[in-house]
Amino acid sequence: MFNSTLKQLSALLAQKKISSAELTQSYLDRVARLNPALNAFVTVDADKSLAQARAADALIAAGKAQPLSGIPVAHKDIFCAKGWRTSCGSKMLSNFVSPYDAHVVEKLNAAGAVILGKTNMDEFAMGSSTETCYFGPVKNPWDRTRVPGGSSGGSAAAVAARMAPAALGTDTGGSIRQPAAFSGICGLKPTYGVVSRYGMIAFASSLDQGGPMARSAEDLALMLNAMAGFDARDSTSLERPAEDFARLLEASAADRARPLAGLRIGVPKEYFGDGLSGDVAAAVEAALAQFEKLGARRIAISLPNTGLSVPAYYVIAPAEASSNLSRFDGVRYGYRAPEYGDLADMYAKSRAQGFGAEVKRRILIGTYVLSHGYYDAYYLKAQKIRRLIAQDFTAAYKQCDLIMGPTSPSVAFALGAKASDPVQMYLNDIYTVAANLAGLPAMSIPCGFGEGGLPVGLQIAGNYFAEAKMLHAAHRYQLATDWHLRQPAGVE
Amino acid sequence: MDWETVIGIETHAQLSTVSKIFSGAATQFGAPPNVQACAVDIALPGVLPVLNKGAVERAIRFGLAVGGPEVISRRSVFARKNYFYPDLPKGYQISQFELPIVTGGAISILTQDGEKTVRLTRAHLEEDAGKSLHEDFHGMSGIDLNRAGTPLLEIVSEPDMRSAEEAVAYAKALHALVRWIGICDGNMQEGSFRCDANVSVRRPGAALGTRREIKNLNSFRFLQQAIEYEVRWQIETLQDGGSIQQATVLFDPDTGQTRMMRTKEDAHDYRYFPDPDLLPLVVSDETIEQIRCELPELPQAKRERYIRDHQLSAYDAGVLTSSREVADYYEDLVKALGGGHKLAASWITGEFFGALKRAGLEISQSPIGSRQLAGLLQQILDAVISGKTAKDVFDAMWNGEGEAAAIIEAKGLKQISDAGELERVIDGVLAANQKSVEEYRAGKEKAFNALVGQAMKATRGKGNPAQINEILKKKLAR
Amino acid sequence: MPLSLPQVKRVAWLARIEITDAEAAAAQGHLNDIFRLIEQMQSVDTEGVAPMAHGQDVVQRLREDRVTESDQHTLYQAIAPQVEDGLYLVPKVIE
Ligand SMILES: [Mg+2]
Ligand SMILES: [Zn+2]
Questions:
Q1: Closest C-alpha to A133, from A77, A192, A200, A59
Q2: Is the pTM of this model over 0.80?
Q3: Cα-only R_g, chain B
Q4: Is the pLDDT of residue A289 over 70?
Q5: How far is B311 from chain C (nearest CA, A)?
Q6: Which of A329, A356, B69, B165 is surrounded by the most beta carbons within 10 Å?
Q7: Residues A73, A79, A80, A81: what is their CA dihedral angle, to the nearest 10 degrees?
Q8: What whole-number distance in Å separates Cα of residue A306 and Cα of residue A271?
């Protein structure tokens, strides 16, 4: 059962082979058994989950089943859910019980899904290893001495260890794709504006985008169907007709042997240079060969400004974050230092004690690049480079339909390996941040194993609103391969 | 040696929307603490701003009133002004910085030397902050965020004013204008219209002096007093060999003095940058044109029309366009009269305003409506009563005794215009005042007035003065 | 240009984060490493390039001027560190 797809679970529930209450309880039991070792969940509330499950059962019994009715889904602890503690991985919000639901949470509730629990994450989503969280690091289910990637590491580990059939993540610079790659699952960051940011605690507003994490492209499509949609409360939410992201998955190919015939896959040379480890390169090469076998054509392309994406990202994201995190001042909610003198001292102490080292580091970077005399040299410059990077993609998508390459330069690294070297940590985002800067959709799927038997992720990126096309290509690949079906040992 | 004062004014006008600029919370004044502070206003984690159309429309109306379509930016941008303060829940204020919605424009004011134009630098949309209450809560302050997120239009003038009087004239003209075009209720006690004054002094012809900014002046009187004090202080400081440091100061109405709040050295570094939660505000020509069509005739245009078409004096035209209510009252009045512009103007600016002022009433609270006053003035135009009698009728109307015609009837105030009756009365007056008749004939003009007075007295004030004049002249000429 | 220790402290003050001398010194090292990475941006000519703030070239949507929110202050203040009479309490604000 824990290996079933969303569609299979949905069928079991619809045929009343199992109730949502039973399904939810068995996932809760599994979480209780596995979580102490993995630390993927930070909050579990069986009563709340089971109440939702029973309500779903009633709707199913009444013949009013929705697409995800009764299916437990793990929520990254960045999404505000009414009555649930929503900590964002921070001491600052370790006592914050949200008085409202995020748009995505409302949508999932309306689609019938059950909140299985809140997953661990890098503090305020700032990190690539899920080590910066207040509640301790998450362990990679494939090797508990390794990181699961981040910042949505808790969601990735939960799905990889079959503690949840699917999960919500957010991606500001790769925070869905990189942990998906490290944990051997699938994750998709939609086009900026497709999923509402309302109720998703902001890291960098112009880059943040929520998205699904699951075990197959097909499940991602079902999840995205439930998550996406216009929201009047988010000014950056896009008003577009409702889209079925699974619509291309069922279509039968004209050429059964070569279902991806005509698909042009751009492979940027900059994604295969120094810094890419051999095991990852080999697995990605093999995947590209598989796509060619499926009929796709491989085209060598160039994204010349790739090397500037990390520098530009580490100006823009901290700048926005420094301002977004100013609301955490100990006045209206969240952590307030137990002892302080005057007002300024209360702010300074509450924020010094409430935020962890990486968050403070990024606030300092962001404050500095926006400060008087530095704005033009850093922030404005980065916004210009951002355009150059977006223009690289515009040019590339004139030559190809999708862009593929590695999601991350290496497989999951050891816990603590980069924690003391922020620059090494940041460079880990080299292949993922550009999609956020340009606002483009991108996903990661498992495509083999590398050093230490750890999963390798293939990044599939597309032009604006190309999610369905990306999911289709990934799905065809997954019909022909079984990398996405492999599961870590020790979590049976 | 002389000093010249240079003043620029920044005004925060609260826009009269029912909901906040970035949230759907109410903006009503006087609610209990924090009941009008919604999730967006208290900046819960994850909430986002969405711009209020009503605030944008009001800003456009303002731009059209001060400069026309060309001063309205087709594309403007909201920025974040970052600083920590407990009444600022997000840790930043959303405001327009580099690209404001209005750039340029002008306000014309009346000074002793005639009309003067004050240029505007810009006007931009922003959100208000909450309030800190300093009553003692065990040595702490209380924060009420009801006002947080209330839409403001910050209107920045060029340093074009040269005296406290001009500054006040500008503030009053601006105040009248924002009320005129219905974008701000102008209630200064409630903080709906607040001014900051940038004041500097210099020798005439010299470069601009260093300015100090006086914050939050919420009455015209305080504006005047604060500037006068500040100018005196700056001149004395310079004359004593001191220099002026750029600073922000507060005016204390109790002492009538300004005091230092902060110097430029400890000024904030606001780290402005475009708010990534909001997109560029784009305004189309069509929207501007539509709003322009709905705009009422503006005070300046009305003033010119009154002088040109109604032959009013510049002074009367100015007074009648001091507010939309006054202009509406005047126009309703002349419409009901079918003319009589000068009579209407002199009655409104004279008797009517005098009565309002004595009673401490606003024009909207007047016990005499424009139709009622028209009823009275019509009696003058029809020569039923004299202007003098009309004042008595006006007082009766003010006291609620009814319409003019009824009062005239009831009190028997109707003028005697019957020529035969008046001739009889005048004959009697001439007979009884031979001395005056002789004096008049000897060339003493004054004696004529005495005779008119006697005739009026004999008719108990009801004789038609014009007719009495005419009959007297005729009879004396013989 | 590397950040000096006073600059690090000033930035921490602007961000209202208390920082000890030892923390400031450690932060200075990390920040300067990061800024060496960031400085790579300066090698690119961006003359005439318009800054890009969002992935999508869209414009601000406007909300109708209607009151849609009701009083929730009891719910919201249930999670506040210190409240009294409906007000959030903070150390005395001095103007
Ligand atoms: Mg100002
Ligand atoms: Zn302002």
A1: A77
A2: yes
A3: 30
A4: yes
A5: 42
A6: A329
A7: 0
A8: 8
Could you confirm whether A151 is annotated as catalytic? yes
Instruction: Between C90 and B452, name the one with better pLDDT.
Output: C90
First-to-last C-alpha distance (Å) of chain B: 69
The two structure tokens encoding residue A474: 């990934």
3-state secondary structure of B212: strand
**Domain locations in chain A as residue ranges:** 6-255+469-485
In this structure, chain B runs to a length of: 478
DSSP assignment string, B351-378? IIHHHHHHHT--GGG-SS-HHHHHHHHH
Alpha carbon B67 to its chain's center: 19
Those chains having 3 or more beta-carbon pairs within 8 angstroms of chain B are A, C
User: Is C78 in Cβ contact with A381 (below 8 Å)?
Assistant: no
Angle between helix axes B324-337 and B370-381 (nearest 10 degrees) is 40
Cα dihedral across residues A45, A51, A54, A55: positive or negative: negative
Query: Which ligand is closest in space to the CA of residue B154?
Result: 2
Distance CA B335, CA B90 (A): 53
- Domain of C10 in residue numbering reads as 5-43
Whether A128 sits among the annotated catalytic residues: the reply is: no
Q: How many domains does chain C have?
A: 1
Quote the minimal CA–CA distance from B276 to chain A in Å: 5
Determine the Cα–Cα distance for residues A163 and A145; give it in Å rounded to an integer.
19
Backbone angles phi, psi at A140, to 5 degrees: -75, 125
Closest CA to A438 of A412, A415, A465: A465
Instruction: Give the one of C39, C46, C90 whose C-beta lies nearest to A346's C-beta.
Output: C90
Mutate to test the interface with A, among B19, B42, B48 (most CBs of A within 10 A): B48
- What pLDDT is attached to residue B236? 96
Pick the closest to residue B164 from B234, B240, B259 (CA basis): B234
Mean pLDDT value across residues A430-451: 98
Please tell me which of the candidates A238, A380, A436 has its beta carbon nearest to residue C56.
Answer: A238
Which helix (H) or strand (E) is A132 found in, with range? Answer: none
- For an interface test with A, the pick among B22, B273, B281 (most A C-beta atoms closer than 10 Å) comes out as B273
pLDDT tens by residue, C27-84: 999 999 999 999 999 999 999 999 999 888 899 999 999 999 999 999 999 999 999 9
Q: Hey, is C31 helix, strand or coil?
A: helix
> Could B46 and A199 be called an inter-chain contact, meaning their C-beta atoms sit closer than 8 Å?
yes
Domain A6-255+469-485 in CATH 3.40.50.150 = no
Question: Ligand 2 centroid vs C92 CA: distance in angstroms?
Answer: 24
Instruction: Give CA–CA dist B291/B288, Å, rounded.
Output: 5
Domains, in order of start, for chain B: 4-287 (no CATH), 297-411 (no CATH), 419-477 (1.10.10.410)
Q: Is position C56 within any domain?
A: no
Interface confidence: ipTM more than 0.95: yes
Any domain includes C74:
no
Q: A330 CB near a chain C CB, below 8 Å? A: yes
For residue C50, being part of any structural domain is answered with: no
The tens place of each residue's pLDDT in chain B, 478 residues long, gives 689 999 999 999 999 999 999 999 999 999 999 999 999 999 999 999 999 999 999 999 999 999 999 999 999 999 999 999 999 999 999 999 999 999 999 999 988 888 899 999 999 999 999 999 987 788 899 999 999 999 999 999 999 999 999 999 999 999 999 999 999 999 999 999 999 999 999 999 899 999 999 999 999 999 999 999 999 999 999 999 999 999 999 999 999 999 988 877 666 899 999 999 999 999 999 999 999 999 999 998 999 999 999 999 988 998 999 889 999 999 999 999 998 999 999 999 999 999 999 999 999 999 999 999 999 999 999 888 888 889 999 999 999 999 999 999 888 888 777 788 888 888 888 888 888 888 888 888 888 888 888 888 888 778 888 888 888 888 888 6
CB-based contact (8 Å) between B99 and chain C? no
